[in-house]
Amino acid sequence: MKYKFSVAPMMDWTDRHCRFFHRLLTRRARLYTEMVTADAVVFGPRRRLLGFDPFEHPLALQLGGADPARLAQAAAIGADFGYDEINLNCGCPSDRVQSGRIGACLMREPHLVGACVAAMKAAVRIPITVKCRIGVDEQEPREALFAFVEQVKAAGADAVIVHARKAWLEGLSPKENRDVPPLDYALVAEVKRAHPNLPIAINGGVKNLNAAAALLNDVDGVMIGRAAYQNPEMLIGVDPLLFGEAAPVGDAVEAIEAYVPYTERELAAGARLHDMTRHLLGLFAGRPGARAYRRRLAELAPKRGAGLDVLRAAVAEISRAPTFEASPEPLAALAE
Questions:
Q1: Which of 13, 42, 187, 233 has its CA 20 to 30 A from that of 20?
Q2: Measured distance CA(283)–CA(288) in Å, rounded
Q3: pLDDT score at 319
Q4: Strand, helix or coil at 332?
Q5: What's the confidence (pLDDT) of residue 320?
Q6: What is the pLDDT of residue 171?
């Protein structure tokens, strides 16, 4: 099932470097871009905004917008770039996206969202999906979510990903909207029972893969965001636990080794080391040497001219820890 597990689209986090690293940890998870507005796709620097490495597949492009014709244009451009899915953002609660009639505020306009989905479906042959909340502000969640799902399903949506919290567009910050409103997984499960042929995935508050596996008893898929970014080693368990397949790497050290050729290539193309290594700061959490590892990367990687020696020295902080004494070879390869 293509939507069984995915890493959420996260602004300023799930850029192409992050996605490449995550793909080293799991071959089966579906990855998502940061949200890009339809206007930016149509009128902006497309190669910079939409470019990705083929290794990232399966990969979805998340769009923001509320104009059916413009979204159809952007979806067609995304499909031409080779994305596997186009996802419409109807869940982000930030002031910036509200002012552009983007994100969670669209929960109030299910008919418009349906028109957007229908226009994109007519423009491309790849799946069109929607990411939403269970409601906004004073909406009654069950009524709002059921009405919303009915509209996007009728318009031809291929799947719906539900962040199982209401969004408060007035009174809560975007950060608070990710934590304060209570989760209602049961409501999302109820929607799934009402629409057995429509893939439904849950997002919001899922902390680990065991919790994800439990939720899969009620829905078709689970999307994890911050927990996966802040503890990327979690992703090494996705393929074995959820798909019954071998993990592509054995541990975080092996993952960094696999990331080195990509980092080297990007440095040669003009990227900064920090562009790549900022996505590695969550590795080795709680292990001896982890604080020194993070400090080296945080302080030295952003410096002009920083190279792979900084990454090697950071990993060497972990290599001194007893946790890794039993299998030193991978670390030796990085630290020599």
A1: 42
A2: 12
A3: 61
A4: helix
A5: 56
A6: 72
Helices (H), 155-217: 174-177, 185-194, 209-215
Instruction: Write down the catalytic residue from 90, 92, 105, 116.
Output: 92
CA 250 vs CA 56, 150, 234, 276: distances in Å: 19, 43, 12, 21
Q: How far apart are CA 184 and CA 204, in angstroms?
A: 9
H/E stretch holding 31 reads strand 30-32
Q: How many CB atoms lie within 10 A of CB 130?
A: 28
Put simply, whether the predicted model's pTM sits higher than 0.90 gets the answer yes
Helix (H) or strand (E) segment spanning residue 201: strand 200-203
Is the C-alpha dihedral spanning 327, 328, 329, 331 positive or negative?
positive
Crossing angle (nearest 10°) for helices 110-123 and 68-81: 40
Q: Is 18 a catalytic residue?
A: no
Strands (DSSP E) contained in 115-155 are 128-132
Q: What are phi and psi of 319, to 5 degrees?
A: -65, -20
Q: How far is CA 12 from CA 21, 194, 262, in A?
A: 15, 35, 20
What is the crossing angle of helices 308-319 and 290-300, to 10°? 170
| DSSP run (H or E) holding 202 | strand 200-203
Residue 147 pLDDT: 98
With tokens 């990509």, the residue in question is 262
Question: Which structure tokens are listed for 74?
Answer: 């952007």
335 burial via Cβ count (<10 Å: 0-12, 13-18, 19+): middle
CB atoms within 10 A of CB 99: 10
The DSSP symbol for 136 reads B
Please give the pLDDT value at position 310.
Answer: 97
* Enclosing H/E stretch for 203: strand 200-203
**Cα 201 from chain centre:** 13
Under 8 Å CB-to-CB from 310, ≥6 apart: which residues? 273, 277, 296, 297, 300, 301
